Each structure stands twice: as structure tokens, then as C-alpha cells.
Amino acid sequence: MRFEVWGMSGSVHTSGGLDLADAEERLWFWVGEIDRACNRFRPDSEISRLNATPGLHHVSPTLSLALSAAAKAYDISSRACDSTILSSLEAWGYDRDFAQLATEGEVPSPTPAPGFERAHFDPATSTVSLEPGVRLDLGASAKALLADLVVADVSERGGVCVEVGGDVALAGAGPEGPWVIGVSDSLTITGHEPRVAMTAGALATSSTRVRSWTRQSLPVHHIIDPATGRPAEGPFVSATVSATDCVSANALSTAALIWGEDAPFRIAQGGSAARLVKRDGTLVLVGGWPQEENS
Questions:
Q1: Over residues 79-101, mean pLDDT
Q2: First to last CA, the chain
Q3: Of the N and C termini of the chain, which has fewer Cβ atoms inside 10 Å?
Q4: What one-character-per-residue DSSP string does 166-199 give?
Q5: pTM for the structure as a whole
Q6: Which of 111, 108, 122 is nearest to 71 (CA)?
């Protein structure tokens, strides 16, 4: 089953005793929950209200889950995947739904992100207290969280594979053995993408070639380096990372584009495998990335 959500495509597949309709029901349940909690383009969303009013807030269970995912991403990426980049994203023009982005406007003077610790999130009490000037964009970790939540809800009943905008979470075997996942760093699917076989865990791809636009003829993209407030300018244009869960895979694939030349070492040191693509097309495989099957 294919679907569209938040300007991205996705899919859900099941096997064994798991009915596709059951997985689909959990998908749309969590889409609704996450949209109401985390969609920064909805003025009535919980995150929009939070961003508009600094200070102490008690948050809903769903927003608490999303903030916990953002905190995890921040930690395992050594602060490279930082949800406090919202002001930088908006300054570079990503201040509305991607399909409506404008290319006018001045090129901003970059400002480093405040850092997630200044959000003062306490998962034990489900409270958050944003310092003045701190605003959150939970989009990246929230879409990965969506895949993780759906898989967690239904995996005991059979095999399941959920993909949301390039983030894949799965459990169990597919209809004919391992799930076979195509790896692409663009929106164009040719049918000749490299493929990997998996029966558990997650896979996420981040790319500077997707969700890119221009600002005064300057090419920019959505992967913001929180240390500079600018779109990342490292040697890698695409990173696909495998991990035990989708939030971790997404955080590491995003961080790989920010870490630069250190990315292969950092990913391997953390025990993950990755497929990195340089600007000139050079492929760098990390941490025992599995043999690719070309269709």
C-alpha cells in the first residue's frame, strides 16, 4: 500500500499473519497523532503553540515521544542532528510547505543553532521549557518515529515494512524471505537502484539532492549544519545508514552529511553500516554494508 503524507511518499507492506488493513489503521492513527503534535506548518499544532510561547509547558504523550526521539537523535549524532535549527531553516526560505517555497529573499547571515539542551525537555514529567529564541522543528525525527511506531504496534502479528520519505523500519520476514530495500538518493526511481536484504532494523537515506531549492540563485537544501546555521557543505551528497531503529538511522544519515570527512569513521565507531556517496559519485561503504543486489 502506497500513501502520501507531509509532501512525501511512503509505503506499507505486510506478510505472514499480519493483515495489511491492520497496519494501515495504525499508520493513519499515528499520522494523525504526529501531525497534530509536530506539524510546524499547522498553526494549531502543539509544536506551533509551543514555539510561540517560551516557558514551561506540559506536553501530550505523542509530543513527548517526538521530543524523546529528537533528544535521542541529538545525542547519537553528537549534536549534529539538532531540532533547534528552525530559525535557520526559515531564514534560508523553508518557512512554508515545501511545494510552496519561494526563491526570493535575501541570503541570510547564518546563526548557529541554540542546541537542544536549551529546550529543557524532561521525559519523566513530560515537560519542556524553551529558552527565549529556541524554536523546534521535529520533522526529520518525527517521520522516522512514525515508521518505528507502526512497526512496533503490529510486528508481533507478522512481517511488516514501513517506509516514510526514505526512512524504512521493518520486522520479520517478507513474503518470500528477507525484505529487499532499494536505495535511492533522489525522487526518481529507475528500477536499477542498488538493493539490500533485511529482516530487522531500519534504514534511512538523507540527501542534499532532495528538498533542495535556490535562494537568490544560490543552491540550498534542508540539511542544516547547526554549528554554522548554513546548509551542510561536506563532501557527501547522500548517506544511507542502517541501525536498530529508524530514529537512529535517520539521525546518523543526516549527521553523515554534516560530519564531512569524519563521517565514515564516526558511523563505523558507532557500530552502524552505511553507504555514502560523494559529490563526484564516489561510493564509500562503511561498517560491513551488505552486498548490493542490482536489479
A1: 78
A2: 22
A3: C
A4: TEEEEES-BTTBSEEEE--SSS---S--EEEEES
A5: 0.91
A6: 122
